[in-house]
């Protein structure tokens, strides 16, 4: 299964493509950032993002598109541009008949590291480990897009199911998850979603 992750943004829209293979391993395919020029009018910027996302979907023919779910931020202009870019990704996928999944940053962090409050550098390192990359994916928008694609593969309803998901977890993920669960139990907190 080919999964295209999108970290939406009006200036930089991260795109990451992975494969969840029959061997139960996730493999890196592509990472990039679709950019629009801040000095252009907003309609032209949106067109640039839409055309860039459409080109990526046409080039990689994903089986699913995983997009970051937009949540409230203190900067209204930032959340507006992010929401518009997310909508463009959904539209491009819908035009091609590709199923869309929305995942929050917390869901991605939990799926990849077992810690919903993981720092950005921790996430970048886990993405690098999971996809067996030689270096951290750059820029951050690209790493986030790969994380969203990985999240979709590992979450319930994603590419890997049940025992396959457990077999795929790296030793670091298992240790992190075990430590997080142990800490939650010691505080008497449930970890349900």
Molecular shape: globular
Q: Structural class of the secondary elements?
A: alpha/beta
- Taking strands numbered 1, 2, ... along the chain, how are they ordered across the largest sheet? 3-2-1-4-5
> Percentage of helical residues?
40-55%
| Largest sheet geometry | 5 strands, mixed
Query: What is the tally of helical segments?
Result: 7
Mean pLDDT: 83
Q: Spell out the helices and strands N to C.
A: EEEHEHEHHHHH
Distance between the termini: 25 Å
Q: What value does the Rg take, in angstroms?
A: 17 Å
Low-confidence stretches: 160-173, 187-193
Tell me the total number of β-strands. 5
Which percent band covers the strand fraction?
A: 15-25%
Strand and helix layout:
Layout: E1 2-7, E2 12-20, E3 26-35, H1 42-60, E4 64-68, H2 76-95, E5 100-103, H3 105-113, H4 120-130, H5 140-154, H6 162-168, H7 171-187
Parallel strand pairs: 1-4, 4-5
Antiparallel strand pairs: 1-2, 2-3
Helix pairs in contact: 1-2, 3-5, 4-5
Q: Which tags fit this structure?
A:
193 residues; alpha/beta
Describe this structure in words.
This protein is α/β, with parallel strands linked by helices and 193 residues long. It is built from seven helices and five strands. It has a five-stranded mixed sheet. A hairpin with a 4-residue loop joins strand 1 and strand 2. Helix 4 (120-130) packs across helix 5. The model is unreliable at 160-173 and 187-193 (pLDDT under 50).
